[in-house]
Structure prediction request, 339 residues.
Amino acid sequence: MDKGLLEKTASELVAPGRGILAADESSGTMSKRLEAVGVEPSAETRRAYRTNLFSTDGYESSISGVILFDETIRQSMDDGTSIPNALSQRGIHPGIKVDTGAKELAHHEGEKITEGLDGLRERCEEYFAMGARFSKWRAVIKIGDSIPSGACLSTNAHALARYAAICQEQGLVPIIEPEVLMEGDHDANRCYEVTAAILDETFSQCKAQGVHIPGALLKPNMVMAGKDCEEQISRDEVAQMTVNCLTDHVPHDLPGIVFLSGGQSDEDATAHLNLMNKMDVQHPWQLSYSYGRALQAEALRTWASGDTDAEASSQLAFSNRARMNGLARSGDWDEGLEA
Prediction:
């Protein structure tokens, strides 16, 4: 394990003013999103949309890394440059999703376990040779009647830790993503409780597996009520409860936390991050973003519009959202800027 390389890459990924673009939708998921905006899905249309995004002028000022899917890391830009090389030339770290998806957890109805450990060492070796410098593995934790179970928390935490250890061995900074889903009618206190539990279990497993915490990143959900809960908390309360939970349950030698948007609106995801970074307190880690839909939703709709300037307008939409979140990294975003 090259601890120096891991720490350098991790710190660059959470550099002030910058965050991560999650463009790692599977071929199936990306196809569904293309269909939803009226585009016939194919390997070429998926490539065309993403390469247009990756050609945006100046977006590297707000984007430090891009998480890719296996199909995408093997594709090229319009000029023939491989996508990983095109990103690296802009000072953006290419990343790669390495899990193979969440499957049903045996004997635990409604709960999932993320798979993909078989052959992971060899895949990471190949991805590093292709230019990847960080990776992502997502576990999904659902809140419901009598769930999550202890089995769900322990098996997913163990898998996250094994993934992180293998990736570090191959030179990839692991993004550890234990996502507590927003689906459900649970309140914010229940979200806090479950988020704390999965964080404790995950970092306990990471310690047991020898994961080098200063060479890793965490991608958690924010603490908020479920979508169907009648009692939604304010943006200020989301920010405060999230910071409280992380402060008490995340190692302070972790270099950075890159939040997922988890179905929040574009503006809510930016506002919550901004409020956390605006607090009159010195956080032990960098608070950044690793957004997918919250950076791309408007860009995708615009790209698919069929207008003569659709490609340029899509890039403008993406650039604007990246800039808004870049400002939120220092607490300098303001709602008035959205206009």
Remarks:
- The mean pLDDT is 96.
- Residues 190 and 225 are 8 Å apart (CA to CA).
- Residues 3-338 form a domain with the TIM Barrel fold (CATH 3.20.20.70).
- Strands lie at 19-22, 63-68, 93-97, 102-104, 112-114, 134-141, 173-180, 217-218, 256-259, 286-291.
